[in-house]
Design brief:
This protein is an alpha/beta fold. It is built from nine helices and eight strands. Helix 2 links the parallel strand 2 and strand 3. Helix 3 runs parallel beside helix 5 and helix 6 packs across helix 7.
Length: 214
Amino acid sequence: MIDASIGGTPAATEAEMLNFFESIHLDKNKFAAVMVEPSYVKWAADYLHARKQKLVTVISYPLGAMTTVAKVFQAEQAFADGADEIDIAMDLSAFRSGDYQQVLDDLRTVRRTAGDRVVKAIPYTALLTDQECIKAAGLILDAGIKFLKTNPGYGNVTTPHHIAVIKKHFKDDLKVMASGGVKTYEDAMAMIDQGADRVATSSVVAILDGSSKR
């Protein structure tokens, strides 16, 4: 399954987002979720839900550097505005400082806020060693989050190796979304071949076109 998001700019206009929604043909294509920034959740929710399409937004994006209280408020607001899922950036600074309890408490609190909704945690696998990826994934799972999103984009490229490392260690206990640098059908299939459960991409049209030619 694909999570679709508009790419190319961190400050898309309403017109650009509407053009993106139309370009991915929600009348015939259904995605796991379509991602918009938090300030646009309320604006996009009616449009997407009318087309029976789930909406996902991001929390403490992209570096996880907000306080836990701020993250909880942002999550509550996102759900109130109509988000169906959230992707939360792990506190990368705390993780790199070795403050694993802070990372765990932070993620666990937001997980509780989400109730039974899907939460994906982003550990920035592109910036971590294999062992750090495993450590971060373990903290995410210990926090009660069953879905890991590898990277937030912004030049942080996911490789099939990242997927393989996490899936080899955690198998089906932890779902993994490949995010960052997935541009073609071949990219997407390389991630899926290593066990990715979802793919996040702004190159939705290119990937669907590549699939239809096979």
